[in-house]
Amino acid sequence: MRHRRLQTFVIGLVVLCATTTVLLGLGLLTAASAPFDKAFDQQRGAHTVAVFDLGDASRAQLARTARRPGVEAAAGPFGQAVLDMPDNWLWMAPGSLSVVGRADPDGPVDRIRLLEGRWVGAPGEIVVNWPVGGTPGPGLLGTELKARGAPTLTVVGFATSMSKSAGAWVSPEQMDRLRPTTAQMLYRFTDAATEQQLRAGLTAATAEVPADSLTTAQSYLALKRAFAAQADAYLPFMTLFGVLGLVLSALIVGNVVSGAVVSGHRHIGVLKSLGFTPGQVVAVYLTMVCVPAIVGCALGVAVGNAVAGPVLRAAFSGIETGSASIGVSWWPSAVCLLSMPALVVVAALIPAVRAHRLSAAQAITAGTAPRTGRGLRVQRRLGGTRLPRAVSLGLGQPFARPGRSLLTMAAIVLGVATVTLTTGLTSTMVAYEKAGKSDGAARIHVQADRPARGGTAPEASDRQTEQRLRSLPGAERVTARALTKVSLSGAAQTVFANFYRGDTQDLASAIVEGHWPAGAGEAAAGPAFLRQHGLSVGDRVTVRLNGRQAPVTIVGELMEGNAQALDFDWRTLAGLDPTPRAAEYTIRLAPGADPQRCVEAIGAADPALRPTVLRSDNAATTTVVGFSSVFTVLLTSVAALGVFNTVLLNIRERRRDLGMLKSIGMTPRQVVVMTVSSVAALGVVGALLGIPVGIVAHRLVVDHVGVVSFPESMKQVWHMPQLAALILSGVTIAVLGALVPARSAARLTIAEVLHNE
Length: 757
What we know:
By secondary structure, the protein is of the alpha+beta class. About 50% of the residues lie in helices and about 20% in strands. Strands 1, 2, 3, 4, 5, 6, 7, 8, 9 and 10 form a 10-stranded mixed β-sheet that branches. Strands 12-13-18-15-17-16 form a 6-stranded mixed β-barrel. Helix 1 packs antiparallel against helix 6 (about 220-265). The longest helix is centred in the first third of the chain and has 44 residues, at about 220-265.
């Protein structure tokens, strides 16, 4: 190690980079389910939330289902009703609110976690399920909620349920006064690992209940998938970078040890002549790589755990985790600490076995240069061409050590594949960020105050407000949106409903399948919503609001979207609410228009309108591009270090040849050209092989991002100028790795070389 400090540093750095990427990938993998599982078990979450029609099944029949075979525990029946909430209650969207009557938050299934206040103790009180995003703000306890057609309810607490079993809870006595028509049962089954087992358990539990009485059955696996969706979006590219780092580590470690064995024949012979057994000689070389590998692995684990926090916070932002915390558990660190040094040992073992086979006499008498005749035929043919002599000599050198050259080229292939993957991801994510936004066009979000929020109602009507916004200087397009909550047939939870009117061209550009809702009874949803509810384009559902219901057809799939949100045309809202009014407006300005001037004009037109200039950046784009770029720099640097090591070994082996070439007139500049040329060809071939690998890796990543469905136009990002630049990246990796040892070789003097000989 003392005599091979550079190779020792290379091994340590390579293992550090690989360990960091692998640890982040494993951290995301375990965090994708561990916090949910932990919180779900702590709160005894329901495997299935089932809703029954009380007109078809009695409470006594439902209570008996808790004692059926396969049911581990059950809670209920709890009366359930849907309230139509007024505009902007508790700063939340108006619409349907699912309310359940429970006497206490504990029980054998679905223990409610109280965030603030207390549990309901008498009629007229309500505990609200607070949405993801922190604890409720001060001053909200004691708020009176006045639902349409229901008595006034006072908020006495805020709570959360990992089972998402209700939007709010009241006492059983209060629920009786609401005259519920449905009842809720919460089940935990002995076998609940798959959807098939859940269906079988529910079928067995409800075997004695009328078949038509079951109206809704919500699986906890759907909630778990929704929980892990954002983490799963980051997992594919993190996994690929981790695999690339592992393969690069194995290649470069094998190359380093192979070069050490070849260049250390005399040292091996001396060790054996002193009495070292073949196994001990192998142990010498394995120890030489294990020490820096262990140090690099320990540092990589430390770095990986340090950066895992920001990565996981970005991946799980806005996700309900109950009382569990997001973080990397202990086992990914343990796996890395054990497996990475083991991988290095395996990679070093194959070339180290060569030292095992050499006899002492053979090792002492063997030279370090390639055997006579290896590659000479290729070198003679290149020498007969019109290429400069320095270039022809350099191009022939890889054939003298074909095994070493192949390992070096493989490192370049993976380096170019990494650059290609990052280039493709960047192009895709930039196109994704610009979807629905024209270059240079600013957008302004306008929020209308509501009396329920303590504000002043806009002076003009909804339609008049829209016309005023259209008349503003620079306004090109205006979109109005109303947000409410609706009940969805077959779902226990209420879902957010966005109703749009006006200029929806930008929204329509986000459709990847089907079309944007163009009339009443049409809706669009993101891939997370469709997967969680088992829907696809063309399916029909029924939505309920204000005691009215409307059949809706899913006519389009969006690139992205909330797992609990649907987008509708405004005409659908007109059939559910007799007095619809937009709460938000989005103004798209003409290119070059001054957004600040428009903001001032909005404030002057109506003080009840609150304008905000929308930012054009996207957190997901920044995260993916940022971390991809960091890993690309790390892995391409590692690939360049592999080239560096190869060139350094070649120079040490060919010191005598370099002295002879200098003695017959080769200049230092020609030495640099010859050395760089020896790997430039490997860079070109490596690039030609690495680009297809990177393109395939890019396709695998963008096709498996669960929360985003990229259109084909965002996946086809490859063009000839871009591909030509990627070919140059292979040459760049090779040249950067060869440049320093090439300059070192150029500075060697003839006297120094001959003295060493």
